[in-house]
Design brief:
- There is one protein chain.
- The radius of gyration is 15 Å and the shape is globular.
- Helix 1 packs antiparallel against helix 2.
- By secondary structure, it is of the alpha+beta class.
- Strands 1-2-3 form a three-stranded mixed beta sheet, covered by helices on one side.
- It is about 55% helix and about 15% strand.
- The protein folds into two domains: about 80 residues, DnaA, N-terminal domain (GMP Synthetase, Chain A, domain 3, 2-Layer Sandwich); about 30 residues, no CATH class.
- The longest helix has 22 residues.
- The mean pLDDT is about 85.
- The protein is built from five helices and three strands.
- This is DNA polymerase III subunit gamma/tau.
Length: about 110
C-alpha cells in the first residue's frame, strides 16, 4: 500500500499538483484491514483531500487489486502545534507551505 501511495504521490508531482503532493507527503497513511487512515492538522486540508479521494482510491484499488479499500480522513489539531526542531523538520515544514522548494532543491541538487 505504501509503495502505491508513493507512486501516486510521484504522479501527482509530475502533473504539477504541488499542493496535493504536499498534503500526500504530510504524514504516513496507516492501513487497518481495508481502511486507510489519514490524519491532517486542519479542516482545509481534509476538504482538499476529500476532493481528490476518488482519483486516489481508484489508483490504489487498481494497484492493490483490492476494490474494498476505502479512505478515512480525520483532523487532529494537535498535529498543527507540532514544532520543527531539526534542519530536516524545518525544511519539511517549509515545503508544506511552499512545495516549489522541493523542486528548487532538486533542480540545483542541493542537500538539506
Amino acid at each position: 500500500m505504501l509503495e502505491g501511495w508513493k507512486e501516486f504521490t510521484e504522479i501527482v508531482a509530475k502533473e504539477g499538483k504541488h499542493i496535493l503532493h504536499s498534503h500526500l507527503r504530510m504524514g504516513t497513511p496507516k492501513l487497518e484491514g481495508n481502511l486507510i487512515h489519514l490524519v491532517f492538522p486542519n479542516e482545509t486540508i481534509k476538504i482538499e483531500m476529500e476532493r481528490e479521494k476518488y482519483e486516489l482510491l481508484q489508483f490504489l484499488r487498481k494497484k492493490l487489486q483490492n476494490y474494498d479499500v476505502d479512505l478515512s480522513i480525520e483532523v487532529d489539531e494537535k498535529e498543527m502545534k507540532r514544532y520543527a526542531y531539526t534542519t530536516k523538520e524545518k525544511y519539511e515544514k517549509l515545503v508544506a507551505i511552499n512545495p516549489l522548494l522541493e523542486e528548487l532543491r532538486k533542480t540545483f541538487d542541493l542537500d538539506i
